[in-house]
Amino acid sequence: MVFFIRCSTLSGHPKAQPLRERRGSVPVLRVAKAMKLAGAITLIGLSLLATVAGAQVPLKPELELAAEVQALAQACRELQPELAEHVDTTVNDWWERNAEAADAVHVLYFGAPSPERSAQQQAFEGLQQRLSAEAEHSRDANPATFAERCRLFLARLESEVPPSRP
């Protein structure tokens, strides 16, 4: 059974009959979906604003890579919960092999406080949010294609050789 709300019900119209199907009514489920969509659009908008604010600060390549790895790993875990342990193991091994990325993220969060570090942290988190939103959108739009993307992502992490230190 689908419940309907007539707009005049909310305004106290004497002839309004709440939660009853009438011509010209709006289904409650449709309203809920519209509200969910509006919330998602707002979240994406806020992520984009954070990205624009953070885009002014260039990030080290290690931080960009770390943001990508964290965002995709989370989306892959959510797509295939049965593979979450494999994703975690692969990502943890990647962090161990890529000490430069791990060090850059550690310094970002635990280094000496400074305006530059704060700006870098905001830029990093903005990039991570944007990449997470993109991955979530891709996952929801075409789960099969995203599952293949996750497979390739994990294979890349497993085979990636860390960059050599100068």
Overall description:
The chain is mainly alpha-helical and 166 residues long. The chain folds into 2 domains: 1-54; 59-159, no CATH class. Helix content is 73%, strand content 2%. The chain contains 7 helices and 2 strands. Helix 2 (28-54) packs antiparallel against helix 6.
The unreliable regions are 1-22, 50-55
Gross morphology is: globular
Which bin fits the share of residues in helices? over 70%
Question: What structural class do the secondary elements suggest?
Answer: mainly alpha
Q: Would you count the extended β strands for me? A: 2
Q: Radius of gyration, Cα only, in angstroms?
A: 23 Å
> What's the number of domains?
2
Q: Can you give the mean pLDDT?
A: 78
Give me the strand/helix succession. Answer: EHEHHHHHH
Can you tag this structure with a few keywords?
166 residues; mainly alpha; 2 domains; two-stranded antiparallel sheet; 73% helix
